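Task card 7
Instruction: Convert sequence to structure tokens.
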Amino acid sequence: MDISFYFDPVSPEVFEFSSPTDHERIFDVIKAHKAAGEFPDLDYIKLAIVGINEDRAAHLNKGCAKGPDHVRRYFYNLYSHWKNLAIADLGNIKRGHAVEDTYFAAKEAIAFLLSNNITPIIIGGSQDLTYANYLAYEDIGRVINIAAVDPLFDLGNDEHELNSRSYLSRIILHQPNFLFAYTNIGYQTYFVDKDAVGLMRNLLFDVHRLGKVNLDIEEAEPMIRNADILSIDISAIRASDAPGNFNAGPNGFYGEEVCRICRYAGISDKLSSIGFYEFNPEYDNKGQTAHLIAQMIWYFIDGFMNRKDDFPEDNKEFMENYVRFIVKVDDFEDELIFLKSKKTDRWWMQVTIKNNVHKKYKRHQFVPCSYNDYKAALNQEIPDRWWKVQQKLL
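Output:
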């Protein structure tokens, strides 16, 4: 399949902003789609930048379609610290006659990349493009988990309307459904209807307040390690660090915190696509937000280049890489099985499957967790993560 016709080249202005040096900056090592007819050869490529200049479904943030090339200007000038970085910049998805045409083109391109084990780094555009990213997994037949760094749940008020504030509802209602779990990281309570919190919990989704996450940012790592897609709304970052968004507010994550989250995403062997959305250059201050997103992408790549092939599989060969701990909780029939990686010291719980669950769900029986979950089990507490997955696999 040739996906090149879905893309426009990167704007020439990006290359005017960057220049080759005696040292290896991203500009020097990336294979970029610089002109028509010069689409990068994707052989041996592991990471691909995909810009999407689409904001017709943006909520109060028109102008975010201009974001991708502004981010590139700063990203290209960062230094590459990695040997054999196999990365390409495919350019920007062509803007369709209707927004649905852009979704289709993005879905087709992303599905091709995923099926060829290439991880897309998506720069939007508005966050409804997460829906197109999700549809790409339907194309390859993979049931997935989504994590979102977002001050809202994006459930919307009208199930028939698709925009940046309602895309999650469309994903939940989509049939056939390929969403196994959803995790929100950093919602801000005063922006969220209390009934929506109850709905998310009834759906067995994980939602975590900003204040709770800030208390121990390391606890975000297993949340992200459980995801196939990470979708980041730039309005989740406080305006002092990322003013480039109409909806930017006084509270949110600090820049260094979201960079850490992006590194967690990169180092996760399960995560296979990441998206950065809602950056609007019209509200930016001297390129501050564009520069921060460029650094977030840099940290994602740093994590990706340090992956350890560390995700459990239910076979003897893989299990030799893990230490197995069994915890018995009083008055509870099932034993809790914890796995600790010998490579990375990261933890998982293994949820026992008792019935004949379809094989497409079996990869979800290994639930990323933290040492704190293991300690809770030792104190006779069953972790919420275990309960939610166990109920979904029944």
